[in-house]
Design brief:
The protein has 220 residues and is of the alpha+beta class. 35% of the residues lie in helices and 21% in strands. The protein has eight helices and seven strands. A five-stranded antiparallel β-sheet has the order 4-3-7-6-5. Strands 1-2 form a two-stranded antiparallel sheet. Strand 1 and strand 2 form a beta hairpin. Helix 5 packs across helix 7 and helix 7 crosses helix 8.
Length: 220
Amino acid sequence: LLPAGFSEGLTMCLVTGSGRYAGLLNFSTDDDRYPGDRACEMIAALNGTLANVVDGTQAARTLASLLDPGTPALALAPDGTPVELAGSARGPALADGSPLVAALAGQIPRDGHERRFVWPDGENGWYRVRIVPCLDEASGRSLSLVTVRPGAHVLGLTRREIEVLTQLASGASNPAIARLLHVSPRTVATHVEHILEKLDVSTRAAAVGRAVREALLLPA
């Protein structure tokens, strides 16, 4: 570091209270009198706190602690593996082996933006699902926080109408949607009419715009 003008410094591994490696702290100074022993001791005393600040799991726990008590939540590793969050219940929607947990692996945000969508809860109910990335990739993003809220309001849309609306958002035509859902194009057209009426819009584009804003779509 001498060519850059730094003549002294220290490097320290950041380790959480549970013993998990969370990152690396480097402190450089252009004065070889610093950091002194006292400064080194103070920085070492802050090790656990600094580790919690940059630790992806801790970030997820911090976000989870802000949720209403009982809100189902878990964290996801980059490969989609669920990570338990102490103090957070998973609930039936996020239980091991549930269809939603299986689908989440393909929904992890890779662009730094959160994702929101709806997921069926039985025959008529809906969950509202939210996935929040805890850190950006430059900082070593390692986890995403998933929360599920039951009783999502979907403006009276039926499950089939939400399926059609999701396909509309992907740019599919009525015949393409009909082939995918194994129904007739005329049936799809009827669903589209009902969707426009329930969303109080006049065009398919406007329906998709409102669905995106209010997270009324199924995951891709």
